[in-house]
């Protein structure tokens, strides 16, 4: 298995997995939109996408968004997306993508990686905990949907 940083030219290959990821979170399928979104993120340097390949097949990805901690005055990364194709979930791709994200963050001087998942997503939560992530009990997180104008 090979883990590497995606290029703009990888967007079309990542799009089907990204689309499946969105469907898991109850979003309508939109393969064209998925590809356009990924291309824009990569072109505009808005995210870092790491991909897992095995025998020439793309089997998983993670997407990191850069942000900053004002308190520590350091960069942080939001590990916003992690998805492994269902047929490849016993091969360790998820753990390898998490390790690659950690390495990328360390190489780029980040203070931390942060992520979130749904409470009921026990498999993902177990994977994160096995890879050293700890549930945040120090802060309460809030969310506000902003209506379009």
Structure description:
This protein is an alpha+beta fold. The protein has a single domain (2-130), classed as Aminopeptidase (3-Layer(aba) Sandwich). The protein contains four helices and five strands. It has helices at residues 11-24, 31-43, 93-107, 122-130, and strands at 2-5, 48-54, 57-69, 74-84, 112-114. A five-stranded mixed β-sheet has the order 1-2-3-4-5. β4 (74-84), α3 and β5 form a beta-alpha-beta unit. The radius of gyration is 15 Å and the shape is globular. 23% of the residues are buried.
The coarse silhouette is globular
Q: Find the count of extended strands (DSSP E, 2+ residues).
A: 5
**CATH architecture classification:** 3-Layer(aba) Sandwich
How is the main sheet built? 5 strands, mixed
CATH fourth-tier homologous superfamily: Gcn5-related N-acetyltransferase (GNAT)
Task: Supply the number of helical segments.
Answer: 4
Radius of gyration: 15 Å
| Assembly classification | single chain
Mean pLDDT: 94
Helix content: 25-40%
Could you spell the SSE succession in H and E letters?
EHHEEEHEH
How many domain units?
Answer: 1
Tell me what portion of residues adopts beta-strand conformation.
Answer: 25-35%
């Amino acid at each position: 298995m090979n883990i590497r940083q995606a290029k703009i030219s990888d967007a079309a290959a990542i799009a089907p997995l990204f689309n499946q990821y969105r469907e898991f979170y109850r979003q309508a399928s939109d393969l064209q939109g998925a590809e356009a979104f990924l291309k824009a993120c990569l072109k505009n340097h808005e995210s870092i996408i790491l991909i897992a390949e095995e025998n020439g097949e793309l089997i998983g990805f993670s997407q990191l968004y850069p942000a900053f901690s004002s308190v520590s005055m350091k960069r942080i990364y939001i590990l916003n997306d992690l998805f492994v194709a269902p047929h490849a979930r016993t091969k360790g791709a998820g753990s390898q993508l998490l390790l690659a994200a950690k390495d990328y963050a360390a190489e780029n001087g980040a203070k931390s990686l942060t992520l979130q998942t749904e409470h009921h997503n026990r498999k993902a939560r177990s994977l994160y905990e096995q890879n050293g992530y700890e549930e945040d009990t120090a802060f309460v997180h809030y969310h506000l949907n902003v209506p379009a104008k």
